[in-house]
Amino acid sequence: MIAANVAAAETLEKQRQLCMYRVHDAPDPAKLEALRKFLEGLEGIGLRLAKGQAVRPRDFNRLLSQAAGTPYAR
Predict the structure, then answer these.
(1) Dist. CA 24–CA 13, nearest whole Å
(2) CA 74, 23, 11 angle in degrees (round to 5)?
(3) What is the largest CA-CA distance in the chain?
(4) How many Cβ atoms from other residues are within 10 Å of residue 45's Cβ?
(5) Which of 20, 36, 56, 71 shows a CA-CA span of 20 to 30 A to 11?
(6) pTM to 2 decimals?
């Protein structure tokens, strides 16, 4: 679904058509800290979320990729 949305937006931009974008709010700092602590508790996998940096969607995608094939994948 995301790929379809990106493709549609790119097509509209190329045709110089008006379109709207949804901008997501930044994650709640307390929830990010809770996620960091949770990840620290998962031993032997090395899943980490950088502290003090802006967290981007690619950071979450990286975590999901690293967790794939481990007991923590779900």
Answers:
(1) 20
(2) 95
(3) 50
(4) 13
(5) 56
(6) 0.62
Residue where the block lists tokens 């032997």: 44
pLDDT of 14 over the 90 cut? yes
Asked whether the beta carbons of 55 and 49 are under 8 A apart, the reply is yes
Q: What's the rounded Cα separation, in Å, for the pair 33 and 51?
A: 8
> What is the SS3 assignment for 14?
helix
CA distances (Å), origin 63, targets 14, 25, 36, 42? 33, 20, 11, 12
Higher pLDDT, 5 or 1: 5
The 10s digit of each residue's pLDDT in 15-63 is 999 888 777 788 899 999 999 888 888 877 778 887 877 888 888 888 8
39's tokens: 């990840």
Q: List the structure tokens of 22.
A: 């949804």
